From TrEMBL:
InterPro entries linked to this entry: MNR
Native source organism of the sequence: Dicaeum eximium
Pfam family, one: MNR
One term under GO cellular component: centriolar satellite
Protein name: MOONR protein
Domain of life, per lineage: Eukaryota
GO biological process terms on file: centriole replication; protein localization to centrosome
């Protein structure tokens, strides 16, 4: 009898095991089928939520655009002037004006009256004999020092200086070289060439 009881017990355990295993398999199959059905629904839900979020973002951007368009600046006249200036600059940039002609004119130099210098032998009151000899030499033209004639209008500006003849010659040479230099650098007519007729 114990053996029969053991067989019955083992059969019962096997039946329970088989039933539990079948139940587990059925629940696993059911879960898989439910998951397969739920995935498209979840996908459509996520797509719908994404589309809805994009619409919300678009609405927010449009609201920001409307707010910026409705901003009223405190100094509207200044903004209007700047807009006008920009329009004028754009129109001038499109239609460039012809350049102004270049005019070459001769400068009028303001020259002060030249003061002529009288070169004479110094007068020494202690030596009257030498003074008389100097006057005689000046009259004969043999002296090494030469007097320069004064213009009557420039007598008020003249200053008398006494220099040796080599210094006087050096001054005169320098003056002639300076005048020659001025002729070279000036824009005066040279032969048939007139620089002022070019312009």
């Amino acid at each position: 009898q114990v053996a029969t009881n053991a067989d019955i017990l083992s059969e019962k355990l096997l039946d329970d095991l088989l039933e539990d295993t079948a139940q587990e398999l059925w629940s696993m199959d059911q879960h898989e089928s439910l998951q397969a059905e739920a995935l498209p629904v979840a996908d459509t839900h996520s797509l719908e939520s994404m589309l809805q979020r994009m619409e919300e973002i678009e609405m927010h951007r449009e609201a920001v655009r409307r707010r910026v368009a409705q901003i009223v600046y405190s100094d509207s006249q200044l903004w209007a002037q700047e807009d006008k200036m920009e329009l004028q600059m754009a129109s001038t940039a499109k239609n460039p004006k012809s350049p102004h002609p270049v005019q070459i004119t001769k400068l009028i130099r303001h020259t002060e009256p030249e003061t002529e210098i009288l070169f004479e032998k110094p007068f020494d009151s202690t030596d009257t004999d030498e003074n008389k000899e100097a006057e005689e030499k000046l009259q004969t033209g043999n002296d090494t020092l030469q007097p320069l004639a004064l213009n009557s209008l420039q007598k008020a500006y003249s200053v008398s200086l006494s220099v040796p003849s080599d210094v006087l010659q050096s001054i005169l040479d320098y003056n002639s070289r300076y005048k020659q230099h001025l002729k070279l650098i000036s824009h005066e007519v040279v032969g048939s060439f007139d620089p002022w007729q070019i312009a």
